[in-house]
Amino acid sequence: MAWEVILRCGETVLWCDRHAPEGTAWAIGGTVDGAAVEPSGPVYRSRKAAVAALLNCEAIRNRTAAAEADGMDDVRSLSDAN
What we know:
five-stranded antiparallel β-sheet, 37% helix, 29% strand
């Protein structure tokens, strides 16, 4: 696959492969020391689904960082708050 970076959202990167055999493919990847790392997760056939996944990844990361900043156990505290 010939992945190219389309969008960065914090530490999360939206990748696109316009030459995939089945048509355009979209995927989510991360960064290591600021450099984009090719995706290893699911591949989306819809740009809309990939962007929704990208935003969801960033929202989860932000909630986890906020919980850790408060000194709370992010898994237990977030689930107990509901």
